[in-house]
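[step 3/7] fold_predict: job queued, chain A
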Amino acid sequence: MTNELTFDQINHMQELFSGDRANEIAQTAATTNGIFKASENIRAIDDANFNFSIDIDSHKVTNQNQSGRCWMFACLNVIRFQLEKQYNIENFELSQNYLFFYDKLEKANYFYQNILNTANEPISSRDVQFLINSPQQDGGDWNLIISLVEKYGVVPIYEMNDSNCSITSAELNTMLNRKLRRDAVELRKLVKENATEATIKDYIEKSLSEVYRLLSIALGTPPKTVDFTFRDKDKKYTSYQGLTPQQLYADYIDIDVKDYVGLINVPAENMPFGKVYEVALSGNMVGGTPNRYLNIKMDELKQATIKQLKSGEPVWFGCDVLKHFDRQKGIMSHDLYKFEDLFDIDFSMTKGDRFNYKESLPTHAMVIGGVNLVDDMPTKWKVENSWGEKIGDKGYCVMDDKWMEEFVFEVVVKKAYLTDELKQALETEPVELPFWNPMNPIA
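[step 4/7] structure written:
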């Protein structure tokens, strides 16, 4: 049944609105100041001080600028934390642009292979439309970093600094996706014409060479060898010359990204707790580490996070950063905005419903570098962002515990900090989720 909206209905709505003085007050506040400022809760701001009982992270924050590389920045912030601790260095930054280059190159090859795998499907199929809608982009997740670091290693930022095209990546993505879509047309045509495997392979190799050229022009050429040099807190200078990026990661930094596992909290009936989930078409390279997550209860997720923080190591996490976040003050508080009071409308949904209906999903990755415990229970968390030093407390944010419960979807911790029951659950066969699931970091 469909009913047309009538003017009688509209007139009645207007009468109801005009008859309530609270609506006039709310209207004045919102039209003058905007919705967020008009509904901001001063008490939540006052409660969001930057004092934590466990505080392990204080190095200079990084800046991803106008790019979607948060997942990469957050992972490299975890790795450099270990490097700084290991060598007694005040601040040492690793090159995000280096891994950005190879992520783009690998995603191009991943796209080509998936175009081949779906070449006999109609252009209107959901799979093909997903692929060509966004052949590649900046997004990713921890497991994609595992693939990159294991294969390409890491380099210091002074060996491959950001370029204008990595700082502001929209132009690069436009050109690269234009190139990939054009190649998709040709690959599907070759399959339709029953071209030989050798012909198709030659076309892909030629195309990848062109992608490499495009990336080198836009981002710079990745170094084959690097010098690892630094001056520690005691002013002692150290230099290791002529290392490959793979050597620097494997032999000089005491961290193994494969030791970590992604834990998610999605309390939805269609995703039961205690199961491992893998998202289709969510990788960044052929043969890379698949995106897998163990779905657990929030109290279990928090306890694993706290254990890692107590051990002196920060925690990578993914969240819906756009919800209840004052960017300038660096405050992430569940009660920061009183939208329901402003509009007199019930906006409440369960976390599971918000996830399934795409009202709330992982949009940003950061690092948890501290927690405040009262009677061994968390009240707030210290967050290292990658948006530069002008927000919050020199780039650090404070996240209250209720915000974490509602808007944090994933943390990455060492397997050693899981309970025996969760370790056993990790070994179970993963349930495949479709590529349109909100946990897909590249959707």
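[step 5/7] annotate
The two ends are 34 Å apart (CA to CA).
The chain is about 45% helix and 15% strand.
exit 0
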